[in-house]
């Protein structure tokens, strides 16, 4: 059976919603520093640049955390100046779960957690991705297709406590 070419299912950065608390807190701190600086010591207002620089760095980090989900693999690229890319083969995925924290759900975002048989990446989390239920189903379908192509099936072993008598 000849496998068709790898196609992109979804790609994009993590959502800046992950930084919402930082945006709010650094904005408030900057305003407090500016107001205090104007009241007490005008040069102190320039200290407001510190939380703004911190905010920019956090924004840049999230902006450069990118995912690319294909019909065969998931790529996760991080780094601002030097880049690092992890690749996870879909046929190694054993379980796919979705988590939708309230704050993310407001923005139609969620997290997709993958449990894999990969020794280096046993747990993988796609954070704050748009329309997570739709993406989770596409990943699950692609996992099954890749397993069929690779002729791979997951095998679960019973623990000592999970004997046949205890299961039924």
Properties at a glance:
168 residues, 3-stranded antiparallel β-sheet, 4-stranded antiparallel β-sheet, 7 strands, alpha+beta, 5 helices, PH-domain like
Describe it.
- By secondary structure, the protein is α+β, with helices and mostly antiparallel strands.
- The chain has a single domain (8-150), classed as Pleckstrin-homology domain (PH domain)/Phosphotyrosine-binding domain (PTB) (PH-domain like), CATH 2.30.29.30.
- The protein has five helices and seven strands; from the N terminus they run E-H-H-E-E-E-E-H-E-E-H-H.
- The relative contact order is 0.15.
Overall pLDDT confidence: 87
* Cα-based radius of gyration, to the nearest Å: 22 Å
Q: What's the oligomerization state?
A: single chain
Helical residues, percent: 25-40%
- The first-to-last residue Cα distance is 39 Å
Secondary-structure element pattern, one letter each: EHHEEEEHEEHH
- Broad CATH class: Mainly Beta
Going by CATH, the architecture would be Roll
Dominant shape: elongated
* Strand numbers in spatial order across the main sheet: 1-2-3-4
The CATH superfamily label reads Pleckstrin-homology domain (PH domain)/Phosphotyrosine-binding domain (PTB)
Uncertain runs:
none
Q: Tally of extended strands?
A: 7
Beta content: 25-35%
| Annotation field: number of helices | 5
Largest sheet: 4 strands, antiparallel
* CATH fold topology: PH-domain like
Structural class per helix/strand content? Answer: alpha+beta
Summed up, the domain count is 1
């Amino acid at each position: 059976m000849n496998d068709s070419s790898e196609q992109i299912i979804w790609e994009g950065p993590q959502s800046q919603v992950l930084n919402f608390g930082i945006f709010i807190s650094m904005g408030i701190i900057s305003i407090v520093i500016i107001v205090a600086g104007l009241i007490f010591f005008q040069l102190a207002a320039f200290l407001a640049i510190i939380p703004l620089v911190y905010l920019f760095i956090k924004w840049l980090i999230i902006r450069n955390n990118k995912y690319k989900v294909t019909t065969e693999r998931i790529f996760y690229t991080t780094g601002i100046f030097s880049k690092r890319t992890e690749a996870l083969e879909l046929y190694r995925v054993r379980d796919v779960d979705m988590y939708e924290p309230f704050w993310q759900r407001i923005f139609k975002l969620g997290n997709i957690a993958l449990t894999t048989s990969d020794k280096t990446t046993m747990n993988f989390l796609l954070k704050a991705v748009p329309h997570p239920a739709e993406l989770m189903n596409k990943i699950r379908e692609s996992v099954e297709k890749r397993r069929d192509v690779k002729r791979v099936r997951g095998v679960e072993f019973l623990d000592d406590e999970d004997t046949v008598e205890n299961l039924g």
